[in-house]
Amino acid sequence: MAVREVDIDFSQDLLDYIEVWKEKPGNLIMMLHRIQEEFGYIPREAAIKLTHLTGVPLAKVYGVVTFYHFFKLEKPGKHKIQVCMGTACYLKGGEDLIQELENLLGIGVNQTTEDEEFSVEAVRCVGCCGLAPVIVVDGEVYGKLKKDQLPEILAKHRGE
Amino acid sequence: MEFNHYILVCGGTGCESSKADDIYRNLLKECEAQGVKDSVQVVKTGCFGFCEQGPIVKILPEESFYVQVKPDDARELIAEHIVKGRQVERLLYDQEKTRRLTGIEDIQFYQKQLRVVLRNCGVINPENIDEYIAREGYAALEKAIFEMTPDEVVEELKTSGLRGRGGAGFPTWMKWKFTKQVQEEEKYIVCNADEGDPGAYMDRSTLEGDPHNVLEAMAIAGHTVGAKQGYIYIRAEYPLAINRLNKAIEQALDYGLLGENILGSDFSFNIELRLGAGAFVCGEETALLASVEGERGMPRPRPPFPAVKGLWNKPTVINNVETWANIPVILLRGANWFSNIGTDKSKGTKVFALTGKINNSGLVEVPMGTPLRDIINDIGGGIKDGKAFKAVQTGGPSGGVITSEFLDTPIDYEHLQELGSIMGSGGMIVMDEDDCMVDVAKFYLGFTVDESCGKCAPCRVGGRKLLNILERISKGQGSRQDLQKLKDIGEAMKRAALCGLGQTAPNPILSTMKYFEDEYLEHIDEQYCRAGKCKELVTYTINPENCIGCGICARRCPVNAISGEKRQPHEIDQALCIKCGECYNACKFDAVIVK
Description:
The structure holds 2 protein chains of 2 kinds.
Chain A: H1 12-21, H2 28-39, H3 44-54, H4 58-67, E1 79-84, H5 87-91, H6 94-105, E2 111-112, E3 118-123, E4 135-137, E5 140-142, H7 150-158
Helix pairs in contact in A: 1-2
Chain B: E1 5-10, H1 13-17, H2 20-33, E2 40-45, E3 57-60, E4 64-66, H3 74-84, H4 108-111, H5 129-134, H6 139-146, H7 150-160, H8 172-181, E5 188-193, H9 202-209, H10 211-225, E6 229-234, H11 239-254, E7 270-275, H12 285-292, E8 316-320, H13 321-333, H14 335-339, E9 349-356, E10 362-367, H15 372-379, E11 389-394, E12 400-403, H16 413-418, E13 427-432, H17 437-451, H18 457-474, H19 480-496, H20 500-504, H21 507-515, H22 517-525, E14 540-542, H23 552-556, E15 562-563, E16 571-572, H24 582-586, E17 592-594
Parallel strand pairs in B: 1-2, 5-6, 5-8, 6-7, 9-13
Antiparallel strand pairs in B: 1-3, 3-4, 9-10, 11-12, 11-13, 14-17, 15-16
């Protein structure tokens, strides 16, 4: 089979990681995590490059990537907003937060704003149920949240 | 080195989210600035459990329990408490709003709890192996290697009566025994830390607060059944737990408590992490093993059970985090000590994540058999905002609801099952009069439909059918035949689905239908949702007698559906109203009516 050249650079760290994990059993998910860490998602070129480096068929890579919610096929915005939709957050108004974000940003769940500043996703429990309802922006957790606090939070992260 | 004071700062996820890390750093800074750094040790611990009041700071030896601490409070805590020896009254936990409480033993939240699994959480620094060892850490492993035969370890587990804490409650000793009996070179030990149940964080807090406890237990299992390799399968969404586990493994290797020739014996054991990637079905053991192998996480039929053919088709002991966390203490204190806790068939304690409409949200550990009422009223402090209790949901998407008439039921595996729910992993979500049971069933089903792996038809097709019917009912378009259909499809799924996810997916519906049939009928016959959750069935109107015409509702309305003259009663245009509830929340005169 002709090997298609792909135009994507992996950092030396990532290449080293793949080199170490290549021979280990059950490595595919771990390598994909590392790729997503580097790019923020799994670009198609990166998936192809991974098949070149490891010999795992592309179909298998995509089989795994599409099975798991955690792996993203599209580039997320500069700031990632995760709205917790675990049971406690749902009961305490998680849906209202999503609705308000849609009012403020004009995007729904799994979408990115046109200026690529924000993307919104609904996530399963983030494990801070005592703080429900919760959103996470760029890893920072905001708990016991009321929707009128959202504009301020967005402004804060937009400025970063 | 001896210190005069120990300051414990909660480093659980909830408190870390509320800037516990800044508090910790400010405390260190202030100790230095105020010249007491040599007599005070500041420690970041695991979860204290009382998440509602976080971030929590506890100062020993006075046992002062400070709540809702802010990073800026560090200066005062050091200046007053440490330097001048006066407690900072305003930060102490205030249970009855009349007197300030000092110590943990005064706090009702803790009084009916018994911490076995969480015994080190909130006590030790989870990132320091010495602190774990100081609390008899790794002594159980030493005992298992040098003082007990593998058969004696299995026997001890049998006498203890320990059952799996991940859901079904299978006796732990049997799993170990099956794996031990198989003659194979390669065997594996797996820890299920794929806590996918939305609204549950027991395992996360256990791993974050006491990671060595789980490592030690896995090594004990390795020695007992003859395995050299262990894997912890943990959700990628738990970065703090992953980080602490990695540190713990490194330290244990350094100390010779993992790796080659543990404690100088001929036993060698290694542990590696494998990260999940967001698939609820991977909590099912055969799906989890597929995922550890790096494949799509799809379950396969059992038997063969993992104990005989598990990871890479080799015999595998797989237990959940909380089960593992019980094992070292059983070996140390003895099976009889353990089996004295709990009920006839359910031994030991259970950790619950108590959340929802409850005053004291948090992580609680109680002896099996504790009545639900004690957990909700005494530990949980009752329902938020004085509302009426409606139900408590246990077992997440696989469980069901328990109503007020069953509040005196002792919580154990058998009783929960009798009520149509399950123990599950330990999520306990309290619901009040504002929660609609049809909506709750729809929420859980939406979850399981989304998480179905699609391998077997009963789950893939049945779940979707159930969800369609529920959506119809919640829009007021359901019929009475729909109720029968829900039951029929649900029962069929229970019998025919391949794995636990599909078999238990109908539980939230069947259980809410059993206890709240009247609510389903109201949706169907009267197009009425008493909780006001099902938006299609709700209308907002303004009562002209209460409305003073202040206009707040009209200004808040996002679609300009409210109009009226100043100081005159306003009106809502039903054709424009999107039922967002803003006007209802905004009105200070109870003039907006929800029907």
